[in-house]
Amino acid sequence: MLRAGFIGFGRMGITHFSILNTHPLVEITAVCDQSNTMLNTLKKYVDIDIHSDHRKMISQGALDFVVISTPSDSHSEIIRVAIDNNLHTFTEKPFALTAAEGLETLEHLDNKPLVNQVGYVNRFNEVFIEIKKLLETGVIGEVKNFSSEMYGATVLKDSKASWRGKRNTGGGCMYEFASHCIDLVLYLLGQPDKVVGSIMQSIYSSDVEDLISSTFIYENGCTGTIMVNWSDESYRKPTNIVTIFGTRGKIIADKHAYKIYLKEADQANGFHQGWNTRYITDFAKSVRFYVRGNEFSRQLDYFVDCIEQKRTDNIASFAEALKTDVVMEEITKDAARSLVTDEVAVESSPILPKHARQLSVWSKLLKLIGRKYR
């Protein structure tokens, strides 16, 4: 049996716990959280070791692996402690808040034979797995353009009281929401060579972004856009929509189905000319335990399988997640550059404010003088 410890026991921690608690090869022996209410509840109903300090839990737990579901700004430090104690590690996204921090953590791993995985769950969704196979076999020809969208009703008011509404703790749409959309692009099409035209916009939040858009450019001639909005109440659940245009056809996909348009029939894959539709129920296989979606169970079962088989070539490894962190950082820098004007110097925040910027009387006067003498 593999002995598991959980660090962070909020919504995602509980989700992961419910999945791994039913795994025949896993025994959950310890949980660490900062909430006294949660710890007291666990003490009352669950027969496992309870901790409020992850370092103490790791040093005393005789664990094989840990599952990290804490606020984003804490991931790197906890991962390094786990590595120092030779523990396999599954962490929620993001891997790190900066590319430099992520690279430092990756170097800390130092080629140790430890399974490492980040919770980019779209890589385990059957529809997106199928789309990746179709792209790799060239069914729609050379990819020329794409769009990757993600919408949800996560933030419908200013959540500044929560860590998700605070920029310095890794809150905001970028790391909490858009990271999934961006990672899906990298999984399907690879890392872009250039990021341009980026906007990070506030809708309700006062300190973080709620909407992100950007354009990706590839040296092979492919271009695409991302559009992410976690303040769209027309969506009941987080929704990914991917559209990919190629020289021989087009694919439109979400987590539940995909449509493919082909200029010519592809008998090898069972597609006729024109539009073809495939639903996830046509090819998905059952998982041993279902909660929130097959992909949530698949990613954790895959993680355990990698430990059992001593495989470190993980499809959602720290190294793969670092690529997503790099792109998110490039988008943030590009968005900051887009806010530079003749009148306003470079600002520390890349976020377009909720309301139009109000110029001071002095700024208005300087602007008027500048126009007069041009």
Provide a descriptive summary of the structure in words.
By secondary structure, the chain is of the alpha/beta class. The protein has two domains: 2-120 and 294-316, Rossmann fold (3-Layer(aba) Sandwich); 123-283, 2-Layer Sandwich (Dihydrodipicolinate Reductase, domain 2), CATH 3.30.360.10. It is 34% helix and 23% strand. It is built from eleven helices and 15 strands. The chain has helices at 11-20, 36-45, 54-60, 75-84, 99-109, 126-136, 173-189, 280-283, 294-308, 318-338, 361-372; strands at 2-7, 26-32, 49-51, 65-68, 88-91, 116-118, 143-151, 194-201, 211-217, 223-229, 239-246, 249-253, 257-262, 274-279, 351-352. The strands form two sheets. It has a nine-stranded mixed β-sheet. Strands 3-2-1-4-5-6 form a six-stranded parallel β-sheet, sandwiched between helices. Strand 2 (26-32), helix 2 (36-45) and strand 3 (49-51) form a beta-alpha-beta unit. It is globular. The relative contact order is 0.14. The mean pLDDT is 92.
Give the gist of this structure.
The chain has 374 residues and is an alpha/beta fold. The chain has two domains: 2-120 and 294-316, Rossmann fold, CATH 3.40.50; 123-283, 2-Layer Sandwich (Dihydrodipicolinate Reductase, domain 2).
Report the structural category: alpha/beta
Domains, number: 2
Strand content: 15-25%
Please give the CATH architecture of the largest domain.
2-Layer Sandwich
Instruction: Enumerate how many helices there are, as a single number.
Output: 11
Q: State the CATH class of the largest domain.
A: Alpha Beta
- At CATH level 3, the topology of the largest domain is Dihydrodipicolinate Reductase, domain 2
Major sheet: order of its strands? 14-13-12-11-7-10-9-8-15
Radius of gyration equals 23 Å
The dominant shape is globular
* Fraction in helix: 25-40%
SSE order, as H and E? EHEHEHEHEHEHEHEEEEEEEHHHEH
> Main beta sheet: strand number and arrangement?
9 strands, mixed
The tally of beta strands, per DSSP, is: 15
**What value does the average pLDDT take?**
92
Question: Could you name the CATH homologous superfamily of the largest domain?
Answer: Dihydrodipicolinate Reductase, domain 2
CA-to-CA gap between the ends?
Answer: 77 Å
Low-pLDDT residue intervals, each spanning 5 or more residues: none
